[in-house]
Fold this protein.
Amino acid sequence: MASRTRILRRFYRRDTLEVARDLLGCVLCRRVSPGLVLRGRIVEVEAYDGPDDRASHAHRGKTGRNAPMFAAGGIAYVYRIYGVHHCLNVVTGPRDYPAAVLLRATEPPLAGRSASGPGLLCRAYDIDQGLDGCSLAGRELWLEKGPAIANRQLRRTPRIGVDYAGAWARRAYRFVARGHPAASGPKRMR
DNA sequence: GGTGCGATTGCA
DNA sequence: GCAATCGCACCA
């Protein structure tokens, strides 16, 4: 049985890029019923770091939607996108510093349930806005330590789908387990 | 109160 | 290549 060490709040209240890198290999855990916990290793994430990051929802200040990003690290930020899908973020850093890490892909939590891409990930783990703002060390949703991803297995690329963000779009804020079959995005980005 | 669009996905 | 589909940000 793999170790099931739950990740503590202080893990998230650090530099966002460091948290993003360290989240690779960690295990996303979601209780979908009293008797069933879905688990999957995180293999792809993106950092959204601070008020100046033009790709971030927070770059125009605090709003109703992005308020969880301004809380202290260790909670979820879940939003709806295109009216169709949900995206799950891990809020990072200290209070009043808006930052989060988007979880883009994990290993499939169940056979036949793809978690490659942020929308599919939320579908796979039954995550919607009901979990917005909830603790990442709670009963419904939490993370555990997992087998680390070695530096040579790690790849950094620009973030996906943020071309509007100018120079910020070119920053290497996406972290992916190199060549992992569950990673999303264009082939050349894996 | 009206309008435009998105940190995506799946199908033509 | 593009439709789906709607909450939210922004402007009036």
